[in-house]
Design goal:
With 459 residues, the chain is α+β, with helices and mostly antiparallel strands. It has helices spanning 104-114, 118-132, 196-202, 214-218, 226-244, 254-261, 347-358, 362-386, 393-419, 431-437, 444-452, and strands at 2-7, 17-25, 31-36, 39-40, 46-48, 52-55, 59-60, 63-68, 76-79, 84-90, 147-153, 158-164, 167-172, 176-179, 191-192, 293-302, 310-315, 324-326, 457-458. The protein has one domain (2-458): Penicillin V Acylase, Chain A. Helix 1 crosses helix 2, helix 7 (347-358) runs parallel beside helix 9 and helix 8 (362-386) packs antiparallel against helix 9. It is globular and about 65 Å long.
Length: 459
């Protein structure tokens, strides 16, 4: 489960394009930031992804992304040229391939490493899809298999790509777009893979006498969560539609995108997470064994020229987390990266632990906590704006580390306060105790141990 949003420059407050994504994953699935430097690779080099091994490209671009602790690929990320991508799970009548292969997150990272802009990203991603397909279990504790949709953006343009197996359809973004866990490209695609329509006709999913509708042909109409997925898509669309009509001086910018990612529904800003969580952009799981919740978020401002992307990231649920600056050319704060062992600092679990204690007291505790976190984000924006354009990576990394430490103090204070509050029933029943009891090891050691249990499948 995820939601991804894009507003192109002509509709934003400052002429930049704004990308935003919430990555919704199963509870307890920690998600960390990873920076990958640009590199050259010798001919014949092979690359290991989550489940598969394939030929490496001769040259790969630097990128920064957020990835679940056990996965090679990214849920969302941005490269040195400003190409930014987010993915979504989608469910088709065409069964997803359960055999080990390339996950949607792997396709996303491969595209960031191999493409410079949205148009090239479209070609790279669909080329990888047609050559290698998509396959594999996409959850660490559940049998979850799905196809993928993607939103690609740079400072000038954007693409929505929806897939089913090796088939795909793409629509150019005009103005703004949002995607969720549901097919939405109908007959309005700009590009489509060879054979997609013929395949749908052969399966009895499309009447060839009618215009081809990609979503109608490939959507699984019996998917149990289809209603909640459509509700989140409508929520994100309404959030942007209500703001792009505002004059530029009050239109879409970083804060508006953060607000969209924190959306709990109309009038629900200070309501505790409840049974409607799967229908909200800021997602809070309802059940420990079947629900999903937001694990990490990112907002990126993209300029049409050579100006580096402005990146803001958060860990855990965005409604109870701050957004801090990140850069492609310097490492994120050490506690925001995957810890090597359980003894190393782990900001994701620190924030997650605080959030779990705050959730039952959300109406009373969340507004003041969010005000402190937002004040830190505003201060961070001022400090970043004061940096010289040629500020070395080390200086920016030091600033990021200082801000992360400041946020850690806010998180620790909020957790200490919540620990003193009297217990309060959770509307989701025993959800919080259940997920806390199932807390796994999510270190780099654990990731390598898990990978060692599954030999890479050559592609």
């Amino acid at each position: 489960m995820c939601d991804t949003l894009l507003v192109l420059g002509p509709l934003s407050a400052d002429g930049r394009s704004y990308f935003a994504k919430n990555s919704d994953r199963e509870p307890n699935e920690a998600q960390y930031l990873t920076r990958v430097p640009a590199a050259s690779h010798a001919p014949g080099t092979r690359l290991r992804t989550t489940y598969a091994e394939l030929p490496q490209a001769e040259r790969t671009h630097a990128c920064l992304g957020s990835r679940p602790w056990w996965i090679w690929g990214f849920e969302h990320g941005v490269n040195e040229h400003g190409l930014t991508i987010g993915n979504e799970a989608v469910w088709s009548r065409l069964p997803a391939d359960p055999e080990p292969g390339l996950l949607g997150m792997d396709l996303l990272r491969l595209t960031l490493e191999r493409a410079r802009d949205a148009d090239e990203g479209l070609a790279v991603l669909t080329g990888l899809l047609e050559r290698y397909g998509q396959a594999g279990r996409a959850a660490v504790t559940r049998d979850m298999f799905y196809h993928n949709a993607f939103l690609l953006a740079d400072g000038r343009r954007g693409w929505v790509i929806e897939t089913a197996g090796r088939h795909w359809a793409a629509r150019r973004v005009t103005g703004w777009a949002t995607i969720s866990n549901v097919y939405q490209i109908g007959s309005d695609y700009d590009l489509i893979s060879n054979g997609a329509e013929a395949f749908a006709v052969a399966q009895g999913w499309h009447d060839p006498a009618r215009p081809f509708d990609w979503a109608a042909a490939f959507t699984d109409p019996d998917r149990p969560n289809l209603k909640s997925c459509r509700a989140r898509l409508a929520m994100s669309q309404a959030h942007l539609a209500g703001r792009v009509a505002i004059p530029p001086e009050g239109g879409i910018g970083r804060d508006a995108m953060i607000a969209a990612l924190r959306d709990h529904g109309p009038g629900a800003e200070d309501r505790a997470p409840g049974l409607e969580g799967q229908s909200c952009v800021c997602m809070h799981a309802v059940q420990a064994d079947t629900g999903s919740e937001t694990a990490a978020s990112m907002v990126v401002a993209l300029s049409p020229g050579d100006t580096p992307p402005e990146i803001w990231g958060s860990l855990g649920s965005p409604c109870l987390s701050g957004f801090l600056p990140l850069w492609v050319d310097c490492d994120p704060p050490a506690p925001w990266q995957q810890p090597e062992t359980g003894a190393d600092p782990d900001a994701w679990w620190q924030i997650e632990g605080m959030q779990r204690r705050i959730e039952p007291h959300f109406p009373d505790e969340a507004p003041a906590l969010r005000a402190r976190l937002d004040a830190l984000t505003r201060e961070a924006a001022v400090l970043c704006a004061a940096l010289p354009a040629d500020a070395p990576a080390a200086r920016r990394a030091a600033l990021g580390a200082m801000l992360a430490e400041r946020q850690a103090g806010i998180v620790a204070a909020a957790r200490a306060r919540a620990d003193q509050l009297p217990p309060r029933p959770d509307p989701r029943g025993s959800y919080l105790p259940q997920v806390e009891a199932a807390r796994p090891r999510t270190t780099a050691e654990a990731r390598r141990a898990l990978a060692a249990q599954r030999p890479a499948r050559p592609l």
